[in-house]
Amino acid sequence: MNKKIALITGVAGQDGSYLAELLLDKDYKVYGLAQSSLSQNNENWRISHIASKLFLHSGDVSDYTVIYELVKAIKPDEIYHLATKHEVGISLQDYLDTQKTNINSVYYFLSAIKELKSDCKFFFASSSKIFGKALLSPQNEQTVFAPNSIYSISKVSGMNLVKMYRDEQGVFACSGILYNHESPRRDFNFLPRKITQAAARIKAGKEKELALGNIDAKRDWGYAKDYVEGMWLMLQADKPDDYVIGTGEIHSVKDILDIAFKEVGLDWKKYVVINKEFFRKEGDIPMVADISKIKNKLKWQPKISFEELIKMMVQNDLKLEEVIWADVNKMI
Predict the structure, then answer these.
(1) For 3-112, where are the E strands, in sequence order?
(2) Backbone dihedral region of 205: left (phi > 0), alpha (psi from -120 to 50 degrees) or beta?
(3) Which of 15, 85, 88, 122 is the Cys-Cys partner for 94 at CB 3.0 to 4.6 Å?
(4) What is the tens place of the pLDDT at every residue in 3-19?
(5) pTM above the 0.85 mark?
(6) Where are the domains of the chain?
(7) Are residues 128 and 287 in contact, defined by beta-carbon separation less than 8 angstroms?
(8) Cα dist. 111→142, 171, 175 in Å?
(9) Overall fold of domain 187-219+250-283+305-331
(10) What is the CATH number that goes with domain 5-181+221-245?
């Protein structure tokens, strides 16, 4: 029996690395597409342990020729389009770059699947930010989109393309509306990782304080490894559809601080400095996922709790500090 073939864009990212592991465990042949050569990219640490098992390609997802030729050559059974340009400003260049990465690439993949008469299944990673400042809570697949940034507008556009190709062209195409998801593989500029790293570094005596904005801000935070399983289940279903993927729980930044600093035996109140410049405008309605649909139809639900997630991230960052300190000592 031939192995299933999967293509993952953004394979070296947080979600891409966990998804690659999942698919390899399920005996897929996994291809990965990254923006630049992974041998020259310091982001490849997330997949270094499985790189020998992957078939890696470099190329621009906003180049139709790259997309078409790759899909034609490898004939994937499943495509997971995770590559994205994250939250940006409002300049013309920001708009053009975001459009190319987050909108054009979706169109190119779907067009290639259709032109090649492929029965390949397609997953698009959307975001809870499509709801903007939501009017209702929790949000589900029927909640009205209210994008309020270039990034969220691009995700709505991508979802509309997915729906059009699904309904009008018969492509098995799905969008996953992903709420905030974190892990030890998260970039350090994302808030939960910023906090867990700071807790570890303060414990190690390498930092003295952590500057934050509104610690009462609340989000639906889950574990990235759980979420990629939801992505996979969406493409195993009998019919294509869009699904919200989240936890259905809401927690504050203060909750992260409580867990993270308790894990290292410190009182965060002694180290956290509130900086008004970091405050963002928050809507009055909480952003939290209603995951009834994916629980009922695909039997998916998160396995790792919020507390377990934060503790896991802290322990990882403590180990990283130990490794870094050991390397420094070797150099002295």
Answers:
(1) 5-9, 29-34, 55-58, 78-81
(2) left
(3) 88
(4) 999 999 999 999 999 99
(5) yes
(6) 5-181+221-245, 187-219+250-283+305-331
(7) yes
(8) 26, 10, 16
(9) UDP-galactose 4-epimerase; domain 1 (3.90.25)
(10) 3.40.50.720
